[in-house]
Amino acid sequence: TIGAIGFAGRSQYAAIGAVTNLAARLCGAAAHGEILTTTRVLATVESLVDAEDAGAQSIKGFSRPVQVVRVFGPKAAAATMSPMASRQAILSRIVSTPECVGRRAAVKAGV
To answer: Are 60 and 18 spatial neighbours (Cβ–Cβ below 8 Å)?
Structure first.
């Protein structure tokens, strides 16, 4: 959910919910310079990035383990594009995933 949260006279614009929680937990679990995402997000960008399975991880707030992948960066073919073009292509694919469609999502892109 994204939008104004609160009541008349005192509200904040915020994003809440499972997708936001998962994104925050993965960002928090990632080491400096590391990119963690889900297999579901990877499915939309796997032709653009090199990644490896990081296994099923227990994530606070989720009843079942989440399949996590570690993204290393653009594939060699994607690396021939300008850095901004490859980032834009990856970001466009990510925000078109079912988790992000119809929502504005905070995306931490460190590629």
So the answer is: no
| Both tokens assigned to 19 | 């997708």
Put simply, whether the predicted model's pTM sits higher than 0.70 gets the answer no
Residues 46-86 have pLDDT tens digits of 888 899 999 999 999 899 999 999 998 888 765 555 555 56
Cβ contact 89:78 at 8 Å: yes
Residue 91 Cα distances to 62, 76, 87, angstroms: 25, 17, 6
CA distances 57 to 21, 62, 67, 85, Å, are 14, 10, 6, 32
Tokens standing for 15? 């994003």
* DSSP code, position 44: H
Q: Is 110 helix (H, G, I), strand (E, B) or coil?
A: coil
Nearest one of 36, 28, 78, 72 to 54, comparing CA atoms: 36
Length in residues, the chain: 111
pLDDT at 85: 55
- d(C-alpha 105, C-alpha 84), whole Å: 20
